[in-house]
Specification:
The chain folds into 2 domains: 2-119 and 285-315, Isopropylmalate Dehydrogenase; 124-244, Isopropylmalate Dehydrogenase. The model has no long low-confidence stretch (mean pLDDT 88). It is 47% helix and 16% strand. Helix 3 crosses helix 5 (102-112). The two termini are 35 Å apart. The protein is globular and about 60 Å long. It has an 11-stranded mixed sheet with strand order 3-2-1-4-11-10-5-6-9-7-8, sandwiched between helices. By secondary structure, the protein is α/β, with parallel strands linked by helices.
């Protein structure tokens, strides 16, 4: 397969991307297309033994984290994001990966790749570490204001991803709410609940965050505003607890000895909680495979991003999304279909 990697996405670009591309080209037989300024990237690669399956694709511009997504996605026509997604659109790459500006990636994907037929809004996803595995949560920031039909489509797309890539068969689908009962939640949740109950056979109802982290659902659906707060709050609490435990363990000789003995266990917990272990998550609903990672991604995180992107290509995720949406939406009320 052909994997396009945005060389100018992460906070410390292009070093993590160059390192990840070199390592991935050694691990996988695929062609890695490193997208960015040719002179800069070739200079970075000069000290490494050339790989026959690593190629630089020139892009003269960079979409910065400070750029306004929609405005600059149109104005900057030769960014590494535009060029990388154009490779996907033209069939010259099977998937595009970036750790750059999330809003910029979303806007560029809409301009370059468009939406899958029938999709009202694409959704950003995240794999949350939960008891005994991972849970897909969407949307986590692309759509702050949602309608019930958006959430229904998020549920369909999240279920396809969970089934085809994470091998959750059949995936349990839930709505994120402030209570498990059917009548709980704001108006959006109350209106969405009966639609999902009627149309999604694997819908298990509402879940609170405690059920989410207990692994009681495989796909949890919410609006982008709530999902983004959930994601950032979870990351902040995890860091706070980690820092607090570390500080307490170093307060005395006795606790330092305990910390030394417990170090392997702490390392395993850290690995589970580290978003870099997943690497990136797909932007579901656009007519091409796009994976978005965290801006602070390092080389390890980007190699993991390539790994999960490969899994999506191998599973035929895009074709599955297109086919499933076409089948499901044809039976839906007209309000759930693209206007």
């Amino acid at each position: 397969m052909r994997i396009a990697l945005d060389a100018m996405g992460s906070d410390r670009h292009p070093d993590p991307e160059v390192g990840a591309a070199i390592k991935a080209s050694q691990i996988y037989p695929d062609e890695i297309l490193l997208v960015g300024p040719k002179d800069l990237l070739e200079a970075k690669l000069a000290s490494f033994f050339p790989s026959p399956n690593l190629r630089v694709v020139h892009a003269s511009q960079v979409l910065e984290m400070t750029d306004k997504p929609a405005e600059n996605a149109r104005r900057k026509s030769d960014t590494s994001m535009v060029v990388g997604m154009e490779l996907v659109r033209q069939g010259e790459a099977d998937v595009f990966i970036t750790a750059g500006n999330t809003g910029g990636a979303m806007a560029t994907a809409l301009f370059q790749l468009r939406r899958i037929r029938g999709v009202r809004r694409p959704a950003l996803t995240a794999q949350f570490p939960v008891r005994n595995g991972h849970c897909i949560v969407l949307d986590i920031g692309a759509n702050a204001d949602c309608k019930p039909e958006y959430l229904v489509q998020f549920a369909i797309m999240g279920a396809v991803y969970a089934e085809k890539v994470l091998k959750k068969v059949p995936p349990r689908i839930a709505l994120l709410s402030n209570g498990e009962e059917a009548g709980k939640g704001n108006e959006l949740i109350k209106e969405t609940y009966p639609i999902l109950k009627e149309l999604m056979p694997n819908f298990i109802g509402n879940v609170e965050p405690k059920e989410l982290f207990n692994g009681e659902a495989d796909v949890v659906v919410t609006d982008g505003f709530t999902g983004n707060i959930l994601l950032k709050s979870s990351e902040a609490v995890a860091k706070f607890l980690t820092d607090l435990i570390r500080a307490e363990m170093l307060k005395s000789t006795q606790t330092k000895i305990g910390a030394l003995l417990a170090k392997p266990a702490f390392a395993r917990v850290k690995k589970v909680m580290d978003p870099g272990e997943v690497g990136a998550a797909p932007l579901l609903g656009v007519n091409g495979l796009v994976f978005i990672g965290h801006g602070r991604s390092d080389e390890v995180a980007l190699v993991n991003a390539i790994r999960v992107a490969r899994q999506a290509v191998e599973a035929g995720l895009l074709n599955e999304l297109q086919a499933t949406l076409a089948e499901r939406l044809s039976a839906f009320p007209t309000t759930l279909v693209e206007d």
